[in-house]
Amino acid sequence: MTVEQYWEKFVQLCPSYKSKTYEAWSFGVDEDELADLVKQGEKTATTSGYETYQVDREPLPQVGDVSVILNKKGEPQCVIETTRVYQTSFNAVTEHHAFLEGEGDKSLAYWRKAHIDFFEPYYTSLGLAFNESMIVVCEEFKVLYK
């Protein structure tokens, strides 16, 4: 099923979203696993690097944004709506946020290692330098359709 077909099925069930725009995207790594965690309700948050929005010329996420989450093959898995967005430094991300991300053992230690392992090479590929005082964008969301 295409993203457009998936969206049409969603708005048939939730017609109040018919006029909303949406973005279709997948997580940066472990796309299938993370999409599954979202569908299961285990993952209700994500974190991205603030500077990457400037480099990619993309707008920052906003409360009310709607997204179609894709798997590694680009197939739609679920529709989410952003419920909270805030910025903080990487080293100030809380245990609570790490738990909401739903990955590994849900601890802050696991979150930090996994995100350092992701951010360091990703920032390097963009010509940026990663450090633990960098600003990150923390986003919380709810599943609307799966």
UniProtKB/TrEMBL annotation:
Residues 25-145 form the ASCH domain. InterPro entries: ASCH_domain (IPR007374), DUF984 (IPR009326), PUA-like_sf (IPR015947). Pfam families: ASCH. It comes from the Bacteria. Coiled coil: none annotated. PANTHER family: CYTOPLASMIC PROTEIN, CYTOPLASMIC PROTEIN-RELATED. This is RNA-binding protein. It comes from Staphylococcus cohnii.
